[in-house]
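Q: Sequence in, structure out?
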Amino acid sequence: MDAPLIPVSLLTGFLGSGKTTLLNQLIQQLPRTAIIMNEFGEIGLDHQLLQKTDGPLALLQGGCICCTVVGSLSPTLKNLFMASSRGEIPQFERVIIETTGIADPAPILDTLINERWIAARFQLNSVVTTVDAVLGEQQLDSYFEAVKQVAVADRLLLTKTDLATPDAIAALQARLQTLNPGAPILTVQHGQIDAAQILNAGLYDPTSKTSNVSQWLNEMRYRPVAATSLMGKPRSDAPVHDNRIRSFSVTFDEPLEWMGIYAALQMLLNFRAKSLLRMKAIVNLKGKDVPTVLHAVQHVLYPPAELPAWPDDNRQSRFVFIVADMEAELVEQMLREFNDACASGLLPSPAG
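A: Exactly. Output:
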């Protein structure tokens, strides 16, 4: 399709962390935004708290978007797109999906990136997670959904900081940086923030039509896998909390074999899907003059996409992983060994 893809932002965060307050501020800045709200329960109320917007509003009720109503998300996006194309509803320039506070983001990301019809018309542009400065520590201790919401985010928004002590804020920020070192942490009071700071966090910036690999991966903020102990012993700066979650980067200087990398990632997804919270990569493949972009979330490895050109002189393949209960050394070893096996002819090369 020649038409530009419509950017989609996923707004998540635990119960009471300020998602709807933030959403009200965003739609004031971006009135031509389609809103999809998921309300847990038979009677939805949150949408009644939204200010008037020029864009359409759709509700997914009766359950959580990540489980009982996940099948409704794709038809809702299709209906919004078709109705706008026919002039039945106002045209919109972007979509914001607000999840329930207990949603697991992974199935939602699956729908946005993996369904062909959706991926041909919409583009995941950012995952934004709100975190309550007062209750965030307690929620992370009690609910693994809250941990996953933080781990997969492109931007972390710390809310209600006016109600928390400086020590509590500092401790929570340190914990968030451990869970997701690549995501900038921004302080938000009463939902007030420049929309451009959080809604253009993907590989492509729709306002400039350019790619920013370093900002998207933010790989310098992730610990290289080589820095870990091969025996898996805890480091002296290991966090007290959330020790199930690890984040790290893996780089390769030489061009890689696609079939080897694909086989390694599929093996991880087949046997350790629940552990793979998020993977982002830009890869230099043999026989390709342009970089290949890869995404994975839990059991889903999304179709590879090619950038039109390398954005700079760095030709390294760079992988960023956020995992739960998975050893960084295992991931690096599988990628390297499967790549070497393919290069040696032990794995078949892809046809064509």
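The chain is about 30% helix and 25% strand.
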